[in-house]
Amino acid sequence: MALKDITLGQYFPGHTVIHRLDPRTKLIFTVAYIVALFLARQVVSYAILLALLGVLIAVSRVGLKSILRGMKPVLIIVIITGVLNLFYTAGEGEPLVSFWVFHIYAEGIWAAIFMVLRIAMLITCTFLLTYTTSPIQLTDGLERLMNPLKAIKVPVHELSMMMSIALRFIPTLIEETDKIMSAQKARGADFDTGSLMQKARALVPLLVPLFISAFRRADELAVAMECRCYHGGEGRTRLRQLKFRGMDVAALLFALVMCVGIGVLGRFGL
What is the count of structural domains for the chain? Predict the structure, then answer.
């Protein structure tokens, strides 16, 4: 897997309906979609959510290729989760396959399929949020949504800023790691051959320059913010004011209907 396949935190500029939505709407819709995923029980519910996700990908114009490339880093986790559900889900009646201490039931197969779908759709929905929302919009949206927490002295602005900076610097650190690996390969380092332990040991020399680079960038960012007289969110104004429009209200109503509908289908075993 190449480091360039990790696309979390990247933003793809565009003028689609999804790009133009208020960031608060996209955050709430993402949470609602995740809730609906956990309310889904059987084929009909998952089919509806999968079709909806396909429509969102098509409307966003991000491209299925970018989504699939971003899924590569978590592919191993998804496979392991599916295998665990396959072997450790007990069922009624005789197992379909039985060997040693492992038994595979029909219920285990369905559980593995649903779990893999759930994780894949959850990650894809989260990717769509970061792909179609700039870090600044994401910060503003998070801060506005968490505004009620200011009443109990929660540093809402600082938390939102840290989260957005972390997302923003993921692609930067990945690019930096790729450059360091290329430089060390040119000096004879080998990251691709050997056993798993040998590959892990080969990565140790990579961590020192990566941490130094990360701390240097953090220091440069802190100095830049101080030079611009940054002092937190108190009295701070915004270039673009967030306002809910008709499409935002429609999207939020759709999110509510989606959660209720999937919940009702789940009650009926669908």
Answer: 1
Residues 26 and 127 sit within 8 Å (Cβ to Cβ)? no
Residue type, 145: L
Size of the chain in residues: 270
| pLDDT tens-digit readout, 28-56 | 999 999 999 988 888 889 999 999 999 99
**Residue 12 is encoded by which pair of tokens?**
């793809």
Q: Which two tokens stand for residue 51?
A: 């079709």
How far is 59 from 236, CA to CA, in rounded Å? 34
Query: Residue 96 half-sphere exposure, CB side, CA atoms within 13 Å?
Result: 12
The C-alpha atoms of residue 50 and residue 58 are separated, in whole angstroms, by 12
More confident residue, 196 or 166: 166
Note down the domain range covering 39. 3-267
Please count the CA atoms within 13 angstroms of the CA of 217 that sit on its side-chain side.
Answer: 14
Compute the distance between CA of residue 177 and CA of residue 33 in angstroms, rounded to an integer. Answer: 33
As given in the structure block, the two tokens for residue 222 are 């802190």
Average pLDDT over residues 1-25: 76
Summarize pLDDT for 178-194 with one digit per residue, the tens. Answer: 888 888 778 777 766 76
Residue 154 sits at φ, ψ, to 5 deg, of -80, 130
Checking if the pLDDT of 231 tops 90, the result is no
Query: Which pLDDT belongs to residue 34?
Result: 92
Rounded to the nearest 10 degrees, how much is the dihedral formed by the CA atoms of 172, 176, 181, 184? 180
3-state SS class at 104: strand
CA-to-CA separations, 170 to 79, 114, 175, 230, in angstroms, rounded: 24, 30, 9, 23
> Higher model confidence: residue 132 or residue 90?
132
Q: How far apart are CA 231 and CA 233, in angstroms?
A: 7
